Amino acid sequence: MSAKKSFTRRGPDRTPFIRRSFQAAFILLNLWIGARFYFFVRYYESGGQTTFVGRPPGVEGWLPIAGLMNLKYALQTGTIPEVHPAAMFLLVAFVVISFVARKAFCSWLCPIGTLSEWLWEGGREIFGRNVQAPRWLDIPLRSLKYLLLGFFGYAVASMAAPDLHAFITSPYGLVADVKMMNFFRRIGTTGAVVIAGLLVGSVFVKNLWCRYLCPYGALVGLVSLFSPARIRREADVCIDCAKCAKVCPSLLPVDRLTTVKSAECTGCLECVAVCPAEGALRLSAGRSRAIPTWAVAGTIAVIFLGIVGFAQLTGRWHSNVPDAAYRELVPAADSFAHPQ
Ligand code: SF4
Ligand code: SF4
User: Fold this and answer.
1) How far is CA 320 from the centre of its chain?
2) What is the pTM of this model?
3) What whole-number distance in Å separates Cα of residue 264 and Cα of residue 275?
4) Per-residue confidence at 10, pLDDT binned at 50, 70, 90?
5) Which of 94, 159, 255, 338 is the least buried, fewest Cβ under 10 Å from its Cβ?
6) C-beta atoms surrounding 200 within 10 Å
7) Does the beta carbon of 269 sit less than 6 angstroms from any atom of ligand 1?
8) Average pLDDT in the 277-303 region?
9) Which residues sit opposite 233 in a β-bridge?
10) Which residues line ligand 2 (CB under 6 A)?
11) With contact defined as beta carbons under 8 Å apart, do 72 and 157 qualify?
């Protein structure tokens, strides 16, 4: 081993703790939103017999298609939509975060990403390893999420602004969030089998849903390709221990790359945290110095809180749907078909 490749032990890295704190905070935030939304729906379903709880606009983070439709509508008309505007602001926040910090929405914030991570980590604890699909299967499977993104993207792109407005303000669009919750509350056999299959599969395969099927992940992954921030390896300092590749949840061969350009990199920084050679691996923009984890965390928080705060302070965060409409539509949500 040459002198420049001498082993350098680094101090403890707090990256995993910081990232997992963000994941936990976002899980708690979503549970709080989900509980509030449930009581909001129950109020209208019960004809006002239960305690009224205001609708949390954050629930629209689970309506990415509405976010995409509203974003197109806003760009085309210069008008912020009155129904599900939070879906658009959250989509923009997650896209900006993923541009700045490498698809970080998936590994720092997304509750599904966090659940997936817990499942495959649990599987590795129990069975000692995770299953990795062979390359000939992995590559076509990974393209599925882009096909789904293409389908939704095409559907939204082919709609003119009046059509987008008509869709979002239709009974179906107004209570799309209620319909989504009802899907899980009154799940049928097929839906239950599919979800159970994904949950069980996620125990064995790392990030099964995120890697192969999530169109949201596909979108932010494509955005991250244009990000100036990348994981970079200094071959002169690297001691070829391959720990970075072993820990990478996206199965990237970090130890053999000088720059990680893949759309699968989620900016989780686990590779940087595990690297034992000082200066061998870093997240950086170009040849600049390493971007520290606290800066990544701070940037994610500032973008998220900044965009949500802007929407709230300018009065554009809440859907403008009258109480009378919810009284009529929420109890009948399941009866509304998808507008043509
Ligand atoms: S390359 Fe590093 S930052 Fe990117 S997904 Fe793999 S471990 Fe995470
Ligand atoms: S963790 Fe990766 S970058 Fe760091 S020394 Fe080992 S092989 Fe090199």
Assistant:
1) 26
2) 0.93
3) 20
4) low
5) 338
6) 13
7) yes
8) 93
9) 281
10) 233, 238-244, 254-255, 274-275, 277, 280-281
11) yes
